[in-house]
Amino acid sequence: MGRFAVMAAVFLLGCSLLSAADTDTCKVYAAVGKNLTLSFELSYKLSSRDGLKWTHNGTTVYWRDSSGLIYLMADSVSSTGSLLLNNLQFSSAGFYEATVSNPSQRETKIWSGRVCVVDAVTKPQLTYDCDFKAGAVVLNCKAPSPQALLFSWTLGTTLLQKEMGQTLRLPLERLKGGSVACVVNNKASGANSDAVLPVCKSPTPPPRVPAPGPGQVCLPLKTFGAMLVGGAGLVLVLLIVIIVLCCRHKRTGAQMRSGNKAELRLTSVNKQELGSIGPDYETMPASEDYPCPSPRPSPRACKNTAEAQQKPLLAAPAEEEQKPSPVPKPRTKLTQTPDA
To answer: Where does the sequence pass through the membrane (predicted)?
Structure first.
């Protein structure tokens, strides 16, 4: 008996675990914003005299008794008893259960399962790169959250059965089969990319450079360019040096010319000062009376003679103002003879 009880307890525990796992497993997947219909099948046609009840996570969302009276109203229930869920949101996910009551008042559970709501798949973007070394084209199907997606590829109207990755590599010869498109799916929705016809043209090979002949030197293009840049830099440095030397020579010449001008000006001033210094000449006052020679002249004649001799002396200052170093005539003294 003890062994039998233990076996029964293990069996009941396994059944409870299986039922819990069944309730946690998603039976229906739906995308956010979409509509969903939960339907069930009966061996007979559901009539208005049959009671119907829908529950969501244990909460009654619809209840109609055998008299046809509706106590709770869900989004919508069809005449066959199917529950219609419109504009699904993440809060719509959960465990749903439908129960039918026949006229004999016996309840019969006819449908139960968990509804999982996931994001809808967005349209993928298809890009490609040409690999000329390998002679192939590499296509990439870009979509958000690729870990939860299933990928498939089409070439023209043909589904590529063995290609289920996010990246596809095709030989260039197979591009003649038509355009390429990728399809992404999750458990609730799917989307197709735009069809792309890859164009891969091999680049033009560089011109072949003939081999240098005897006595000729062939420099690489980079070396020749470096030599040109170095030569241009050397010419620029030489120009800068020449400009600096010319500016310095010009400045030195200007200083020398200004010094020569100053020396010439100083020499001229010194010469003028030396020329203005002369011997002292004896001048006679204007009021000096000159004696008249003998024989004794008349007083009027002596006066005329003194005025005539005084005129050259008075004109001397005017001539000194015009000439820097005038030379006056020497004064001659008249000897006075004694009266006879």
So the answer is: 224-247
Evaluate if residue 88 carries a pLDDT over 90: yes
Give the pLDDT score at 33.
Answer: 92
Q: Among residues 114, 117, 109, which one has the least CA distance to residue 32? A: 117
What's the rounded mean pLDDT across residues 252-276?
Answer: 71
204-231 residue pLDDT tens: 666 665 665 565 666 677 787 888 888 8
How, if at all, do strands 190-192 and 167-171 pair? unpaired
The CA distance from 107 to 51, in Å, is: 9
pLDDT digits (tens, 9 = 90+) for 153-187: 999 888 998 899 999 999 988 888 789 999 999 99
**DSSP letters for 270-307:** HHHHHHT---------TTPPPPPPSSP--HHHHHHHHH
**Quick check: 288 pLDDT over 50?**
no
The token pair at 91 is: 């809060």
8 A C-beta contact, residue 82 and residue 37: yes
Q: In the chain, list all ranges with CATH 2.60.40.10.
A: 19-118, 125-192
Confidence of residue 14 (pLDDT cuts 50, 70, 90): very low
What is the C-alpha separation between 232 and 6, in angstroms, rounded? 99
Measured distance CA(70)–CA(63) in Å, rounded: 6
Spatial contact of 88 and 36, defined as CB atoms under 8 Å apart: yes
Classify domain 125-192 by CATH number.
2.60.40.10
Residue 326's closest CA among 334, 335, 317? Answer: 317
Distance, CA of 171 to CA of 8 (rounded, Å): 63
- The DSSP result for 209-241, as a single string, is PPPP-TT-----HHHHHHHHHHHHHHHHHHHHH
Q: How far is 111 from 21, CA to CA, in rounded Å?
A: 17
Q: How far apart are CA 180 and CA 302, in angstroms?
A: 148
Domain 19-118 belongs in CATH node 3.30.110.30: no
